[in-house]
Structures are given as C-alpha cells and as structure tokens.
Specification:
The complex is a heterodimer of chains A (336) and B (606). Chain A has 336 residues and is mainly α. Helix content of chain A is 68%, strand content 2%. Chain A contains 16 helices and two strands. Chain B has 606 residues and is mostly helical. In chain B, 72% of the residues lie in helices and 0% in strands. Chain B has helices at residues 3-35, 39-65, 69-75, 79-87, 90-94, 96-109, 117-135, 140-149, 153-173, 191-197, 208-216, 228-239, 247-256, 258-274, 280-289, 292-298, 300-316, 321-340, 349-352, 358-365, 376-399, 404-418, 420-431, 439-449, 458-477, 485-495, 506-519, 524-538, 541-558, 563-582, 596-605. The longest helix of chain B is centred in the N-terminal third of the chain and has 33 residues, at 3-35. The chains are: A mainly alpha (336), B mainly alpha (606). At the A-B interface, helix 4, helix 5, helix 6, helix 7 and helix 8 of A face helix 5, helix 6, helix 7, helix 8 and helix 9 of B.
C-alpha cells in the first residue's frame, strides 16, 4: 500500500508539472510515454479500489496532502480527487495541451497519424496519434449523430444506470446515491431536455438487469415532481408509452401527474377551454387528452379504472353534463 | 535584375496565382459547408473529400516551400480562415487522409522560432485549435456524465460511436417493407444517407460492421442503393489497403462496383506477372488469398467479368506461360470454391461458361481425381477427338469466310487453358503410351501449345512432336552407360531457339522430357542424368524445376494413391534436388527438401 500511495503522489505531482511548469520544455517522446504510462497506472488503481471504501479513504487522504503541498508550490494547481483518477490520462493531456511551454515536437507526436499497430513491445498503447484518434472518434460521432436519434443519450443512460447499480450494490446510503443523481442533473443545467432522454434511456435498456438502479431512479422521479413533469411534457409518445408499459411505478406516477394537471386547470370563459395557470411548462387541454389516450394505448387495462375514477370525480363535482363545469366530465367526454 | 531572375519570378507569380484561384474555390466551399448544416452540404463535403485531401497535400508542399509563416500568410491571406473552418468540419476531421494533411498545413504555419508578433499570434492560435479539437466537449450532458460517472472522454466517445454503428447496422439490416411501392416509406430510406455519411469513415475499424451491412444489404427496392461516393471511397481505400472489411463485405463491394472488381482482377494479373512465384502452389495460394475465386463462385456475373479480362489478356499475350499459369490457378481455386458452396446456391456450370463449347464443358471441368485413372486415356482421346473435329470445322469455315468458327475454336482452347490439369495428365500418359496409341494425346498437347494453325503448320508441328516423342522414348529405353551423347545433343538443339519455322514449343518438349524422367520405367540415376545433362546444356534448369513443381502439385491434387504414387513422388523429389542443388538460389530455404538418400530412408520407414 505504501508503494501505491507513493506512486499516487508522484503521478499527481507529474500532472501538476505537466500542466504548469516549464520543465516540459525538456520532454521528449520517451518522457511523454512514461507520463502516460503513470497516468494509466492511476486509472488502474482507480478501477481496482473504487469499490473499496477503506482503501478509497486512505487514498483520498493521501491526495489531499499532495494537493496541499502542490498548492503551496503552484498556486494555480487544480486539485485531483480520487474519482479524477479515472480520467488521469485525459487530465494529463488537457494539462499538457494547455501548457504554453509544451514543445511543438511533443504536440506533433500527439497529433500525428496513429500507426496501425498501436501497441509497442511492452503491450502499452502508443501515445503517437493519441489526439488524432480522439478527434477521429469525436468527428465520426458527429457525422453519424444526425442519423441516429439518441445514441448518445442511450450510452449516457446506460453509464448512469451502471453507476447507480454499483453505488447501490456497495450499500451506500440513499442520500449519497441521490446526491450523485443531483450532481449529474446539475451538470446537465441547460440541457434538461437531454437529461430527460438520458433518464428514459436508463429506464428502458436493457431489460432484466440492474433493476435496483431502475427502481431507485423511479422512486427519485416520484419525489422529484418537477423532473417527472418535465419528462412527461418533453419525451416523445413512443418513449412515454414504452416507459408506461415497462414500469408500473412510472405508469402510476404518469397517471397521477395527468390527474394533477387536470385538477390544476381552470375554465377560461374567454377561450372557451380549460387552461393551466400554475404549472410550467403549461399543458393544453387537448394535449392532456392526448396523454390520457397514450396511457390507455400503452396499458389498455388502465382504461376501465381510469374512466371509473374520472366518473366518480365528475359526480363529486355535481355530475352535470354541461361543458366548462367539471374538468373531469369534459375529459371523459373528450376521451370517449 | 537578370533575365533568369525575372523569369523565375514570373513563374512563381503564375504558380502563386494558380494557387490563389484554387484556394478561392476551396475557401468558398469551406465557408458554404460551415454556414449551412444540411444533408446537401454534407453530401457536397463527402463528394469533395478526396479532391480536398489532394489539394491539402499540395498546400502542405506550398507552405513548406515558403521561407517563413509571415510570407505564407502574406501570400495566402485567407489560409488561416480556411484551415480553421476545415478544423471544425467533422466530415473533414473524420477522414484520415484529409485530417492528416490539414494538420500538416497547420504545422507548416507554426514557427519554431517566431520572429514577430504575427508569428507568435499564429502559434498561439494553432495551439489553441489543437487543444480545443482534442479536449472540447460540445454536450454538457456528456461532460456531466464523464465527470460524475468517471469515464474518460476517449472511452466515452468510442462507446457512443459503437452504439451508433450498432443502431445504424440494425436499421440497415431490416428488410425492405415498401413492397416495391416507391411512395411508401420503408427501411431503405436511410440507406443512401447512411452510406453517404460513411464516406469519410471507410477506413475506421469501428464503422466496418456498418459498412459491411450496407454493402450486403439486398437490393430489394430502388431506394436501397448505396451512394456512388461511398463505393468510390471504399474502392480507393481498398486499393491503398486502408480497409478493414471482412471477406464477405469485400465481395459485396466488388458486386456493387464494377470498377473496383476490375481493379482487383488487374492487380491480381499484375502481381502474377511481375513477381516470380517460386512454386505453382504459392501462386495458387496467392490467387486464393485475393478472394476473387470465392467471389466469382458466389456471383456468376463477377466470374464473367473476371474471365473476360483473362480472355483478352490471353489474346494479347498468346504464348505467355505466366498468364496461362495464372488462369489455371484461378480456375482451379474457383472450381474448389464452387464445390464448397451449398448446392442450392450453386449456379449451373454452363452459365459460368456461356461461350465455351458446351459439349466439352463437363469433360474438361471435371478434375482428374474424379475420374478413375484407368479411364483417363479414353477420356482424353475423346476430348482430343472433339477438339480435332472443331478445328477441322473451323478451318473449313475459314475457307468459306465465316469467322464465327475461329471464335469458337479460341473459346475451346481457352477452356483447355483453364483446365490445364488435363494437359498435365496428357503429358503423363504420353510417357506410358506406345507408338500406336500416342497420336490423339500428342495432337492435344500440340494444340495446347500451338492453338492457331498459323501458316498451316499444324501438320508439320505434329510431325515434330511425334519425332520428339520417338526420340525421348528410345533415349529412355537405353539401358546402360554411356549415354548416347549425340542423341542428348539433338534434344538440346531442339530446346534452343531455332531459326527455321515452325519451331515446336520448347516448353512442350521440356514437359515431355521431365515427365519421361519421372514416369518412365527407367532407373532414377539414368533418368536424372539424362534430364540434368539436357537442361544444363540448354540452360532450362529453372523451367524444369518449375515443371516438376507443377507436376507435384497436380499429382497431390489428383491424390493418385496407386502403389506407384510414392515412387513417383520420391522420383520427383530426387530430380528436384539434383536440379536445385546446382541452382540453389531458385528455391527459398524453407522449401529445401531432404537429400535423395534421406528421402530413400524415410520411404523405407513407411
């Protein structure tokens, strides 16, 4: 363990040097390869110990100490946490590329055309063309992106679900898991619609695995009412139907939300229709009807009970057959 | 200023102007591509990609010829803008070749020792572009996931790419649902757009499964056609060996693109004619590796194209034995592949050979191994008789001014060339023939080597062939030393170029000589001595070894397991050894066989 901690410290120091010091002027290809080898080593350490809280703690402490001493020497040093170790090569790369002292010869190596055989004698990946490969892959995604709807959301959803599954399997406290979800949500600020797609993807693929993670997500959605509301207003009909079909919890939440939307409506005499005043984004009466129909189409068994419940609500409103008096009565007639 | 100097300057200016004009064209393109993000602009980018990379390559040379970046920027003021725009065009950066030249242009603009603020600024800009290209993320969600789920960007993007390829491959694999109705939406709708988008990605190994699916999609409806740009990009990548497609996808590429098939056939021809293949077996392996025989067995149309190319090559290089060897190797690989296909997928043989005389088709295409050895002579006599009749009819037709006969005769000969295994058997049987029954076989062998009756020499050539046969027959009958020097010498003379016409093909004589040495019931030492003396003196040792190798290959294929087979193989080995010991350079080390005595010992061991 001592040795591993020592290596961690050296690698974090290496990251700091690569990003901020003029020493990189003296780097050559060999130095570069060695640096990336150490970064890969840290990624291995991360994947080896990420599920081991005890070791993680020790390492976090070591990293804190290293960060402190580095900050003293390099004021602009950005701290490296344990989870940052998973992206150590990337951090090294970003640091290097942003370091104005980095020799162009090193940059040329990184942006060179990768050799067809990209492992050297020791079985390590060659750094030659590292950036070129990244750019190639990113560009390919951009080229194919317009042809594939939501492939990125699917991958992100799967990653999120896997992580949730891992957190739950570790027996971490629900609040920690929730905190994780909240931070992803915060990270997605400005892309809420995409976040909805991501959550939907996490709930839809693949079946029969990580049900614990999916359950957790569904419970979170029920608590996180605004999120559920957002999802139901932005997701496509197909996705909503799949979700309602796949998850009973979602179906119930969806039904509950539709009822809430209806109960929030007031009749506008000027527009001669039911309108929403409180919810944002607003849902129109015809859209609300469509949602109910969608739910019935996805789960035909729901139809009968729903109609019965709507009828009861209509009766409690006085059971008038006149438009504009009871939203339930008007919904019932729109649905039939 | 001297005249020379002003001339150089004038040339430089015109060169410079030319570049500016072309530069303007590409700058306009780069602007247009980035301004509108529509399927049309994407298509236009794909269509221009290969030309763009050629231009970028020229630009690299141009930039590198300048004294410094300041000069480059002065001469090509829009260069920075142009390169910058291209850097943010994913179609350009996805294409391996374009990206390589684009980056080289940027590095060409970079000053190792900046001498003024402009150069320093350019350096900063170039660094910034590189940094952003490698590390910037467009999507906040992707960033958030990478950060919180601890996934490195490289891995993340690779996963997304693979997922996209899977989704698109699934879409591409769906069957056509339009039932021929053009107006109805169907799963083929995206095929064209998908293939178009794959143009910059043809060399990307991750995209290979999608490319394979696109190529192998059945052409069910009019909308299922893949883009021409896509096929062109694939063909050129295949030619420059930058393609990572599986075998079946390559076959489909040829099926879709005639030019790429033709190119593959021509490349095979070229490789077979320019390099020396130490043994016929190696040539056959090379032909099989080209995938062409397999592709031709699956698609009759591809066989017809390939055969057409062979046919015209053979016509042009009438006597070229390398062409004949290649065609024989190809046909034998093709027949093997055809036999391996499931019977329901197999097209009848006559459709592969529509121009060949149908009466001869089955007899010639059947490999010797499938006919009992005892029936060989009868089989060959029959073939020889049929061909003789054909030549007679042809020559009669010629006299009546009808040219269709000569075409028919050529086709018959072409088929015989393709089925060279029977010619091999003919020579072998000639050794064990008597004077009374060698006629039809000699005729067949002579026809193979001299198909045209140019100058009406056939009869004369036949007489020559018979003389050679008689000569060899009596020579190998000689029971004891010393060998008749004068007889050997007359053989050497016949094998050397002679002034008088018509000369009998030296290869015909050599084949007979080799086969006599192998198959004639004569002691090995005498046979070896005869063969060695003659080939040494006529300088045909290499050719003799080659004939021995061909013989060995055919015998192995025919797998004649007669009691004689072992003896024959040992004799071949021994003869090869004697000839190659002297000409060691002919055979690479791996092919070197044990010496005669060791071969004899191992034979005892069996």
């Amino acid at each position: 363990m001592e040795a591993v901690l020592k290596n961690l410290r050296s690698t974090v120091e290496l990251l700091a040097v690569a990003a901020q010091s003029g020493v990189v002027v003296q780097w050559d290809k060999q130095t570069l390869c060695r640096a990336f080898r150490w970064a890969r080593y840290c990624e291995h350490v991360f994947s080896r110990f990420q599920d081991n809280p005890a070791v993680r703690d020790i390492m976090e402490k070591q990293l804190q100490l290293t960060n402190q001493s580095l900050r003293a020497a390099l004021p602009r040093h950005s701290e490296v946490s344990f989870s940052d170790l998973s992206r150590c090569q990337h951090l090294l790369l970003v640091g290097l590329l942003n370091n104005p002292e980095l020799p162009s010869s090193i940059m040329k190596i990184l942006f060179d055309t990768p050799s067809p055989v990209n492992t050297n004698d020791e079985g390590f990946e060659d750094v030659t063309g590292l950036c070129s490969r990244i750019i190639h892959c990113k560009s390919a995604c951009k080229v194919l992106g317009p042809l594939t709807d939501g492939a990125d959301a699917e991958v992100q959803g799967a990653m999120l679900r896997e992580r949730l599954g891992a957190l739950l399997a570790q027996g971490s406290e629900p609040c920690r898991t929730e905190h994780f979800l909240e931070s992803v949500l915060q990270g997605c600020a400005g892309a809420e619609e995409h976040f909805c797609l991501l959550i939907a993807a996490a709930l839809l693929t693949p079946k029969n695995s990580e049900t614990a993670a999916q359950d957790f997500l569904l419970d979170w959605l029920q608590k996180k009412h605004s999120m559920l509301q957002h999802m139901c207003s932005v997701l496509s009909d197909t996705i909503l139907m799949d979700l309602a079909r796949e998850h009973l919890k979602f179906r119930d939440a969806y039904y509950g939300l539709l009822k809430k939307w209806a109960s929030d409506m007031e009749y506008s005499i000027n527009d001669r229709t039911w309108v929403q005043s409180s919810t944002n984004p607003t849902v129109s009466f015809p859209k609300l009807t469509e949602h109910f129909l969608l739910l019935f189409k996805a789960c035909p068994s729901v139809k009968e009970n729903t109609e019965k419940e709507l009828n009861d609500l209509k009766i409690s409103d006085g059971d008038f057959d006149v438009r504009g008096l009871s939203v339930w009565g008007d919904l019932l007639s729109a649905l039939n | 200023m001297s005249q020379l100097q002003s001339l150089i300057q004038l040339q430089e200016t015109s060169e410079h102007l030319l570049n500016v004009q072309e530069m303007q064209f590409w700058l306009d393109k780069a602007v247009a591509w980035t301004q509108v993000d529509s399927p049309e602009t994407q298509k236009d980018t794909c269509r221009h990609l290969s030309r763009l990379s050629v231009f970028l390559q020229q630009l690299v040379t141009h930039i590198n010829n300048m004294s410094c970046s300041t000069e480059t920027m002065k001469r090509l003021p829009f260069l920075g803008q142009f390169l910058g725009r291209l850097c943010w065009n994913p179609y350009v950066t996805a294409d391996d070749t374009s990206r390589r030249w684009l980056f080289q242009c940027l590095w060409g603009l970079y000053s190792e020792h900046p001498s003024n603020p402009v150069e320093r600024k350019a350096n900063q800009w170039i660094r910034k572009i590189f940094c952003q290209l490698a590390t910037d993320e467009d999507s906040v969600a992707a960033q958030a996931i990478m950060k919180h789920v601890d996934v490195p960007p490289k891995e993340y993007h690779l996963k997304v790419l693979k997922r996209m390829v899977t989704l698109l491959r699934e879409d591409t694999g769906k069957t056509c649902t339009s039932l021929g109705n053009i107006n109805q939406r169907c799963s083929c709708d995206n095929v064209l757009a998908t293939s178009e988008a794959c143009v910059p990605l043809v060399t990307c190994p991750e995209v290979a499964p999608l490319i394979g699916a696109l190529l192998q999609r059945p052409t069910a409806c009019v909308k299922s056609a893949v883009s021409e740009n896509f096929l062109d990009a694939l063909s050129s990548a295949y030619t420059s060996q930058g393609l990572s497609l599986d075998e079946q996808a390559v076959v489909s590429l040829w099926y879709h693109s005639l030019s790429s098939l033709e190119e593959a056939v021509l490349r095979l021809l070229e490789s077979a004619l320019t390099s020396t293949w130490s043994t016929p077996l190696k040539l056959e392996q090379h032909v099989a590796q080209s995938l062409l025989p397999k592709a031709c067995a699956q698609h009759c149309s591809m066989f017809l194209v390939t055969n057409d190319i062979f046919r015209s090559t053979l016509k042009q290089a009438e006597g070229n034995d390398s062409v004949k060897s290649l065609i024989q190797a190809f046909t034998s690989c093709f027949l093997r592949e055809l036999a391996m296909l499931q019977p329901q997928k197999r097209v009848p043989l006559k459709e592969f050979f529509p121009q060949s005389p149908q009466s001869l088709l089955v007899s010639l295409l059947t490999p010797p191994a499938e006919i009992p050895q005892k029936a060989w002579r009868h089989h060959l006599n029959w073939i020889s008789g049929s061909l003789q009749r054909l030549t007679e009819e042809d020559e009669e037709g010629d006299r009546d001014g009808d040219s269709s006969g000569s075409t028919r005769l050529f086709e018959a000969w072409f088929l015989l060339v393709q089925c060279g295994h029977w010619v091999q058997v003919t020579v072998q049987l000639l050794v064990t023939s008597g004077p009374e029954d060698c006629g039809p076989l000699l005729w067949l062998l002579t026809f193979y080597h001299h198909p045209t009756n140019r100058g009406h020499h056939r009869a004369l050539q036949l007489v020559h062939a018979k003389e050679v046969w008689d000569h060899l027959h009596s020579l190998f009958l000689a029971l004891a030393h010393p060998l008749p020097v004068d007889r050997l010498q007359s053989l050497v003379t016949q094998l050397s170029p002679q002034p008088q016409q018509p000369q009998l093909s030296p290869l015909l004589i050599l084949k007979l000589l080799v086969d006599f040495a192998v198959f004639f019931q004569q002691s090995l030492s005498i046979s070896t001595e005869i063969l060695q003396t003659v080939v040494d003196q006529s300088g045909l040792a290499d050719e003799a070894v080659h004939v021995l190798h061909s013989l060995e290959l055919e015998l192995t294929k025919a797998s004649c397991l007669s009691g004689d087979a072992n003896r024959v193989h040992l004799r071949i080995k021994a003869l090869q050894n004697t000839l190659t010991k002297k000409y060691g350079a002919w055979i690479p080390a791996e092919d070197q066989e044990p010496t005669c005595s060791r071969a004899g010992e191992s034979a005892h061991g069996h």
